Amino acid sequence: MKNIKIILSMLVLMTLGLGACNDELAQPPVIIPEGGIGTGAWDNPMTVYQVGLGSVNNAFESCWVKGYIVGYVNIDVANVLKDETAVFTTPATVKTNILLAATADEKDWTKCIPVQLPSGPVRNALNVADHADNMGKEVCILGSTGSKYCSAYGLRSASAYKWGDKGDESIDNKKPETPVVTGQTIYSALDASDSSLDPEWTIENVPLATGLNYVWSWKDYNGQYYLNASAYAQNKANAALAYCYSPVISLDGFATAAFSFEHAAKFQTTIKELCKAVVRAEGATEWTDLEIPTWPGTTSWAFVNSGEIDLSAYVGKKVQIGFKYESSDAGADTWEIKNVKVTGTK
Question: Is 176 inside a domain boundary?
Answer without folding.
Answer: no
